[in-house]
Amino acid sequence: MTSLVPLLLSAASLLTPAGEKGVVLLFVRTDCPISNRYAPELERLSETWSPRGFEFVLVYPEAGLTEAAMKEHGRTYGYRMRAVLDADHQYVDRAKVVVTPEAAVFVEGKLIYTGRIDDWFFDFGRSRPHAQHHDLEDVLAAIAAGKVPEYRETKAIGCAIEKLK
Q1: Which CATH architecture has domain 20-160?
Q2: Is the pLDDT of residue 70 over 80?
Q3: Which terminus of the chain faces fewer neighbouring Cβ atoms within 10 Å, N or C?
Q4: What local confidence, expressed as pLDDT, does residue 121 receive?
């Protein structure tokens, strides 16, 4: 697995790969039931939007998670997109995320969105049969249409990303 770590060393160096419209970091945990329930939707988003110029990367911010365990989790939940370990929280800090699942979208190195995938889960332990608002997909559609929105943040519901000591 390739790593974006060199790209995350400074705000100026998180650049969109050549030919890409944006980078979408999807933060997940192996032990988060909400993250795991989102696996089919995250993979669908990757399959839908990658051909339209977006790079999708799963980010695992779990201390102690091995690459083998990360790969096994990916196989179990049907992920085909690239995944990286983030035990030292370089991605977490740069993206300003606090829970999993949560998304961060970068365009030409600039963070433009942090937050929920959609509103399927609207409170802890409470979900709708189907999402009513597709926040991440709305941001991607705007970028694909050539309209890079101003930074926006929504509140994601999920499992807390543990702070590093």
Answers
A1: 3-Layer(aba) Sandwich (3.40)
A2: yes
A3: C
A4: 87
Residues 102 and 94: their CA atoms lie apart, in Å, by: 13
Condensed to tens digits (0 to 9), the pLDDT of residues 16-47 reads 565 578 999 999 999 999 999 999 999 999 99
In angstroms, rounded to a whole number, what is the distance separating the alpha carbons of residues 131 and 44?
14
In contact, 74 and 58? CB cutoff 8 Å: yes
Q: What is the model's pTM?
A: 0.88
Residue 106's DSSP bridge partners are 23, 111
Sign of the Cα torsion 17, 40, 2, 25 reads positive
Q: Is the dihedral of CA 37, 139, 100, 7 positive or negative?
A: positive
3-class DSSP assignment, residue 25: strand
Query: Pairing mode, if any, of strands 121-123 and 99-100?
Result: unpaired
Looking at the DSSP bridge assignments, the partners of residue 57 are 25, 82
For the chain, which residues make up each domain, given as ranges? 20-160
For residues 101 and 131, the answer to whether their CB atoms sit within 8 Å is no
**Diameter over CA atoms, the chain:** 42
According to DSSP, the β-strands at 152-153 and 110-115 are parallel
> What is the distance between the terminal CA atoms of the chain, rounded to a whole angstrom?
27
Find where tokens 């433009």 sit: 112
